[in-house]
Write a structure and sequence with these properties.
Two copies of one chain form a homodimer. Chain A has helices at 13-26, 39-46, 50-62, 79-84, 120-133, 135-138, 148-162, 177-188, 203-210, 227-232, 254-266, 291-294, 306-309, 323-333, 342-353, 356-382, 409-418, 453-467, and strands spanning 66-69, 73-76, 106-107, 171-174, 193-198, 214-221, 224-225, 237-240, 271-275, 300-305, 317-320, 388-391, 398-403, 421-422, 424-425, 440-444. By secondary structure, chain A is an alpha/beta fold. In chain A, the strands form four sheets. An eight-stranded mixed sheet of chain A has the order 4-11-10-9-8-5-6-7. A four-stranded antiparallel sheet of chain A has the order 12-13-16-15. A two-stranded antiparallel sheet of chain A has the order 1-2. In chain A, a hairpin with a 6-residue loop joins strand 12 (388-391) and strand 13. At the A-B interface, helix 3, helix 5, helix 6, helix 7 and helix 8 of A face helix 3, helix 5, helix 6, helix 7 and helix 8 of B.
Chain lengths: 468, 468
């Protein structure tokens, strides 16, 4: 019987076992046609689990060193054959790829969600259920807009959560909002002039430009995008986030919403894209209905994602099209297959339908609320009055801290960078033109390390004190 | 204790239980603030499982009829509150959506794969393993090109299966080839002239046009795309499927492959997109290496998908970029997040690494080989010599049947349609210009109902006989 010492060396057991057997085959200690011990026998003999042996045998088979005969067992392959068809080794070109994540002592800029907050055990339970209950449905090609069960669940959620009356056939499910923007450009046309908020989320204009559409910028004031600037820029499609604007944190008041809808209705081909990306996390105050809910003239396209509210690794977003655009979508773009696997769609449908999504949102709102309170306390006790001012509106997962400094925003960022602290200014998100809101910095707290916050804030305070 | 008769009526038990309790709440039999029995108690009392009660309570909570207090239990909500915030009912706009699937007595045109052939139990096993082993990795945002483990597994597969030496960083994983074409157009530029095969797969030009790129057509001869026609059309990017062209079934010989590579090398900005969509199913004969493997000048972009080889509901495709384009991709387009969920990526990686993919391919090749033999036998015994000719090359999942008829292709299709038989002619895939290959029809057999084939072929034969 084969005997190897698997206690030495690094890596998983099955890899070591695989290496040993492969070596024996290559050195001729095991010869072509020789029968290998059964998985159970070898496992018992070596004192490892059958799965370890199975994985090692699987890999040996995958690489052609071993073959299996049904009901007989495993045999060493004829190596001269392996030699002949020996495939090229995978190349190694040392292509430089974007770095995964920078290492910072403290990072105020990351808007990732904390993986620990995702209700993984419930999700796993629903995945297991979906596997056993939906075998047939999982293998059916879904409708181009997504699985009906999921679109119905989303319609239900939008109704109770956002006051939106939506037909499931208005909902198009896709693998991320970035993908859906690409579809929207194909639907509305790349000859249109798209206008984004300035300052704003820098990925959005990148997507428009990468898709060959004209992208212009409209200024923001205290109430949100400046409607007159939309006119100046000759915008045809306004891309806005009225619930919680990034980076300013502004929630657009009702009056500006109606002004924006009025603008859209002046000319037939105007539209509004309403990005509602973190509306679930409004912490207090009376919710303002989304533009979509008060639009009577089919001018608003509503966008939202589960990447923010659940976890960024679930690539499920959706858009809600006004009736005539939904019809146009099915006519023009239904040749595209839905980009989200049926498996994730059914799992998410169950997650929403059975109330887990609502529970999760409520739990997260409490969690973020507590976090915010703690953060405010720490800010209060770290700074002296007049050194800084928190600008917040109880919405979403970031707020703005205005610092009493004469330093330029770049200088402040550079000083902090030297100390391993990443903090971005509002002015970093100014896409064009002169930035107005100096000395205002963004504090994302969705995965903030609150324990280390005081130390990071003290570094900032020291910089302020050195000035005076 | 609540008591209901759950034996009557249709639907799952928990639904009936939910309905009963909801009714009692609405009718005031259960009043605001009243405590409901614990899940376990009610389950025992009613003789149902705890899960049934849990699901019913979950739904009642989801709709606001019931609320839970941690460690205390379930209580009837204050209905006057429910009334106040009662959300709008989901709308029903009767939007006409594309029909899911037409009903045919016999369909020669469907290129779907048979869901029954997907090794679901192994896949489910690996999904369960992934859930329990990869919890941490599942919640990490993957690299823009996809999870490394999967890209390594694909590189290994391409090495042993297609003789391609590939660095995993050349591989970009995406939610379907349609999505990847969209990315490619952004990478190569929509100012390029893209050229597709004529006749060819009609979805490809749709995607180019929908993305605002110029799309032209080059003729096919017996060996594949006509290289001189690429020059005439001023093509810059040639989109070809040399392993198995749809619809003609042509496998491009080596000489034409080199001619095509020569064309690409005449001018700097020329590229070839090699769509290798069903290369796994070559049934016999010496395999011809893909263009990518014989390209020494970074001119070929290789595309393949698991939708064809596994199941169409798994939306995982990939492209392999030549080194300089991989670098350009990371520079220009790495702001896009990967569109495939981490969960599917890890599951597929395990499926490939542990040899299941290769096993599945081998099994399917046997299966399709047997199917093809049976189909040929049925054709042989149904038609008289001279009535038809099978044009095949042992590659891929369709072949071409040439019929001895004077009818036009449209007439033949129309006659068959009347009898519930869907069959498409090669000429249906002629995108522009005059079609040459009349009387040639496509027989897709990837999910053909072989039992009903003879009857369908007899209908065709009858049409041929009526002519004479």
């Amino acid at each position: 019987m084969l005997s190897y010492d698997l206690s030495r060396g690094k890596g998983p057991l099955y890899q070591k076992l695989y290496q040993h057997i492969k070596q024996d085959i290559l050195q001729g200690k095991l010869s072509s046609g020789e029968k290998l011990p059964s998985k159970r026998m070898l496992a018992k003999h070596m004192g490892v689990s059958t799965i370890t042996v199975e994985n090692a045998y699987d890999q040996l088979m995958g690489e052609g060193y071993v073959y299996a005969l049904p009901k007989k067992g495993y045999y060493v392959a004829n190596l001269s054959d392996v030699g002949k068809i020996r495939p090229p080794a995978p190349a190694d070109l040392h292509i430089q790829v974007p770095e995964k994540r920078e290492e910072w002592r403290f990072d105020f800029s990351s808007n990732r969600t904390e993986p620990e907050n995702f209700p993984f055990s419930i999700w796993a339970k629903l995945m297991r259920e979906t596997i056993s209950v939906k075998e047939r449905e999982l293998l059916q090609v879904p409708f181009c807009g997504g699985v009906l069960e999921l679109r119905q669940a989303i319609a239900g959620h939008l109704s109770s959560f956002r006051g939106m009356a939506v037909d499931p056939n208005q909902i198009i499910v896709g693998a991320g909002t970035e993908y859906l923007y690409g579809l929207l450009i194909q639907l509305l046309g790349r000859d249109k002039v798209y206008c984004v908020e300035n300052p704003g989320y820098d990925k959005v204009p990148k997507i428009y430009e990468s898709n060959g559409a004209t992208c212009v910028y409209a200024a923001m004031d205290r109430e949100g995008i400046v409607v007159d600037d939309l006119r100046c820029q000759m915008a045809q499609v306004a891309h806005v986030s009225p619930t919680h604007h990034f980076p300013t944190g502004i929630t657009m008041p009702a009056s500006r919403r109606y002004e924006l809808l009025a603008w859209a209705n002046e000319v037939e081909e105007r539209y509004i894209i309403e990005d509602d990306y973190d509306s679930e996390f409004r912490l207090k105050g009376k919710p303002i209905p989304p533009l979509f809910a008060i639009d009577a003239c089919e001018k608003v396209i509503y966008m939202n994602t589960f990447s923010k509210s659940l976890t960024s690794t679930i690539r499920i977003s959706y858009m809600v099209l006004p009736e005539h655009l939904a019809k146009a979508f099915y006519q023009k773009l239904s040749f595209y297959a839905c980009t989200v696997p049926t498996f994730e769609q059914y799992t998410l449908a169950a997650f929403i339908r059975r109330g887990y999504f609502e529970k999760h949102i409520n739990r997260m709102r409490l969690h973020y609320g507590r976090m915010r309170t703690r953060i405010m306390e720490i800010i209060d006790r770290t700074f002296l009055p007049g050194e800084c001012r928190v600008m917040e509106n109880d919405s979403g997962l970031h707020f703005v801290l205005e610092l009493a400094t004469k330093m330029s925003d770049r200088e402040m960022e550079e000083h902090l960078r030297e100390q391993g602290i990443k903090m971005k200014a509002l002015t970093d998100f100014q896409m064009t033109g002169e930035a107005k809101n100096g000395h205002q910095f963004i504090l994302n707290y969705s995965n903030m390390d609150v324990e280390g916050l005081e130390e990071a804030l003290l570094c900032i305070r020291k910089l302020l004190e050195q000035e005076t």
